[in-house]
Design brief:
The protein has about 200 residues and is an alpha/beta fold. Helices cover about 30% and strands about 20% of the residues. Strand 2 and strand 3 form a beta hairpin.
């Protein structure tokens, strides 16, 4: 199946005290570039970005991804979804929505969720979950939901669609808390880095 990935990276990092969470360094490169590289190893990637000029564009320099500037990004996540969905290829059978600030997700995790679309086809939504079953990311939407994604407004993401089609959502367990570890604040980053350092030392 043709399932491109939309990487949402147009948000304003309002809770980071002036820093840009997507430009924080992880494994020697900005988190945004790392997330895009992981996604690109799995499927074609569309990245929703703030309008240029912006350092996030520079962070993706040289990568084979399609950047889509979101003029109304201040509205919230759904402006990014609308803009990126309009850039989907005509033959896309589904789309994976991926947040750029999930540092524990791996290419294998994304592939696991993609595989569920093929293996458990009688659904509209396939969603990564923690190993104990809490829903998280990434989320794949069947092409039948593209028109609804293109009409979302506000900052609630696609949760209204997930709730509306709750009976046709398939959860895909991923290792640990990969599906839910997002880094929105300096405290989040400090805790995550400390935990990672402890794992390296153990």
């Amino acid at each position: 199946m043709s399932i491109p990935i939309i990487l949402l990276a147009a948000g304003q990092s309002r809770r980071m005290g002036g820093a840009d969470k997507l430009l924080q360094e992880v494994d020697g490169r900005p988190l945004l570039r790392r997330s895009a590289e992981i996604a690109r190893s799995v499927a074609p990637v569309i990245v929703a970005l703030p309008p240029a000029p912006h350092p996030r564009h520079d962070a993706l320099s040289g990568l084979d991804v399609l950047g889509v500037p979101i003029a109304d990004a201040q509205e919230g996540m759904n402006a990014s979804l609308r803009g990126a969905v309009r850039a989907l290829p005509q033959d896309a059978q589904a789309v994976m929505i991926l947040l750029a600030d999930l540092p524990d997700l791996t290419a294998e995790d994304l592939t696991t969720v993609m595989r569920a679309v093929r293996d458990v086809p009688d659904n509209l939504i396939w969603r990564g979950a923690t190993e104990d079953g809490k829903p998280g990311h990434p989320v794949v939407f069947h092409r039948d939901l593209f028109p609804d994604l293109a009409k979302l407004t506000g900052d609630g993401g696609a949760q209204t669609l997930v709730r509306r089609h709750a009976g046709r959502v398939h959860l895909v367990p991923l290792p640990g808390q990969h599906a839910r570890t997002d880094l929105d604040t300096p405290d989040d980053w400090n805790r995550w880095r400390s935990g990672r350092e402890r794992l390296r030392e153990s």
